[in-house]
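Bench notes, afternoon.
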Amino acid sequence: MAKTSYIFGPVPSRRLGRSLGVDLVPAKTCTYDCVYCQVGRTTEQTCERREWVPLEAVLEQLAEGISRRPDYITLSGSGEPTLYLRLAELIEAIKRLTDIPVAVITNGSLLDRPEVRRDLVRADLVLPTLSAGSQEIFERIHRPCPEISFADMLEGLVAFRREYAGPIWLEVFLLPGLNTDHLELQRIKDCLQRIRPDRVQLNTVSRPPAEKDTPAVPAAELERIAALLGPNVEIIATNPKGPPPTPADVREEDILTMLRRRPCSIEDIAQGLAIAPEQARRLVEDLFGRGLIRTEQVNLRWYFKA
């Protein structure tokens, strides 16, 4: 029986450089079922926090993974990381293990719970999401658990800003026809003024989304929205840039663990694992020929999925 892998990458991140991912929930366990999610449709929708994966096994694999010296150790992956009950213990253990900063990518849905905020203040960087300014659009984009309301989610983000001294980089994921009209953007802007994140990062569809008919916002429209929302807004909906690839000893399983968590292009794989694009292409072609991965095209760019 193959050993479950809780660590993946490093993967090239548009926000975090080379990011070593730590997956704390089974695929796809989440509080949301977002229409744009690159991991796919949610199969286990829940708000229950528990030890979904064994902490000791995560730390054992992480001790091996940090030898690649990523820019960040990132708690993210197949679902919502704040669902992990031993999150605080994990972050503290990582800090004893290495000086690589710990980032948490969260949808922010559980931040109205004081215990979740207490766990997250231990991280070096927190990257939550706010993609709506109203209950109606919140439900249409995120399709949350019934017990999660837009108002509670927003108040959780506001409370976390008061309690957390570290940087907050807030993602606003934009979808044409849902949250790009003037009224909804003004509502989002009002929310941003309450939350006061250090950065606001605009994103849109660039990898295969859960709902295949979900379009991307054009570049010119992103620029217009960035100007509307304020001075600390940046657009991250571009291809990730990483360091020049160098030869490395990469296994098939390294690539498969990446592709189980997110669709990647040849360039993504090469940058994340620090190998030449030609080597990544050879490995991918072999995996594709054996039926272990498949392809999907988005915005004229080919991505691979396990």
